[in-house]
Design a protein that fits this description.
- The protein is of the alpha/beta class.
- The protein has two domains: about 80 residues, no CATH class; about 170 residues, P-loop containing nucleotide triphosphate hydrolases (Rossmann fold, 3-Layer(aba) Sandwich), CATH 3.40.50.300.
- It is about 50% helix and about 10% strand.
- The protein contains 14 helices and five strands.
- Strands 2-3-4-1-5 form a five-stranded parallel beta sheet.
- Strand 3, helix 7 and strand 4 form a beta-alpha-beta unit.
- Helix 2 packs antiparallel against helix 12 and helix 11 crosses helix 12.
- The two termini are about 30 Å apart.
Length: about 300
């Protein structure tokens, strides 16, 4: 499955942005820091997914709220996407006084399906005083009360595939805890995880029926991929064109990244930093080979 393509015409953008151009005048260390700073790139599927999240956030409260499951390979943009969404709806002061408002509450599933640790994670994020030895029922009531106090309108749970790292009865208990939060708060739940997350959610038929799915595929060579590389180049503080969208360089970056967008970003960042340290102002095929990038699949086998 490939990333969505809006049309078949490739258009080269203006070479670099005004900010990137200004950054070319910075000292070496600051230029490298600028290049390595995480940036958001709104490719079509990401934009479509953000629109789905917008729809969920404004969905009227009901007894049966819709939910969304976002899956994809590790480092393929799931967390970056949700962080971009949270940036659009940050925590805000409450005009009526009291605690802040947090429209999108982000948390992470524990390494194993454990209700108590799940509530602990949320209570930590809420800066709530609690004891890890408290009964699960007490923790649940605290979480429900505090999420209502901050007026949470969406609950985001990352690393949801961790549910599978435990026996079936623990998995079911964890899924029930998720379901109870959604039912009691009447807010949508957005779950993020690897492809295994789909299997994790679908171990509960009732919960699975409430989750629509978005899969972020690995990239393949094509017009949309070339557009993506041009967008990356637009942000690079390099004085000469690298022509990342040209076939040879684009194909080499795709091979090195194995189609994972996070790897694409890191390869370009590392290659640009290497170029600057070696008194060059563009990324070339030789530089891509010189950085001695280890393929993600080989890295996984080293663990």
């Amino acid at each position: 499955m490939t990333a969505s393509v809006s049309n078949n015409t490739f258009v080269e953008p203006t070479r670099i942005s005004a900010n990137a151009l200004a950054a070319t005048q910075l000292p070496l260390g600051e230029r490298i820091t600028y290049i390595r700073k995480k940036k958001w790139f709104g490719y079509p599927l990401a934009t479509e997914t953000l629109d789905k999240l917008e729809d969920l956030l404004t969905y009227p409260r009901s007894d049966r709220m819709p939910n969304l499951l976002i899956t994809g390979d590790t480092n393929n943009g799931k967390t970056s996407l949700i962080k971009e969404f949270i940036k659009r709806y940050p925590a805000q002061d409450n005009p009526d006084g009291g605690t802040i408002k947090v429209p999108v509450f982000f948390t992470q599933a524990p390494p194993i399906p454990d209700e108590g640790r799940f509530y602990d994670e949320m209570l930590e994020a809420l800066f709530a005083p609690y004891r890890s030895t408290d009964k699960i029922g007490k923790k649940e009531k605290m979480v429900l009360r505090l999420l209502k106090v901050i007026d949470a309108r969406m609950l985001v749970i990352d690393e949801i595939h961790n549910i599978l790292a435990g026996p079936i009865n623990r998995q079911q208990a964890f899924l029930n805890a998720m379901k109870n939060l959604g039912n009691n708060l009447q807010i949508p739940i957005v779950a993020l995880g690897t492809k295994e997350a789909f299997r994790a959610i679908h171990t509960d038929d009732q919960l699975a029926n409430r989750f629509k799915s978005v899969y972020l595929p690995k990239w393949e060579y094509g017009v949309e991929y070339r557009r993506l590389l041009s967008t990356f180049e637009y942000t690079l503080a390099l004085k000469e064109p690298s022509n990342l969208s040209d076939k040879q360089i684009a194909s080499e970056i795709l091979r090195m990244s194995e189609g994972v967008i996070g790897e694409v970003a890191e390869i370009i960042s590392e290659a640009a930093a290497y170029a600057l340290r070696n008194h060059q102002e563009a990324i070339t095929l030789d530089i891509l080979r010189d950085i001695k990038w280890v393929l993600p699949s080989k890295r996984a086998k080293m663990v």
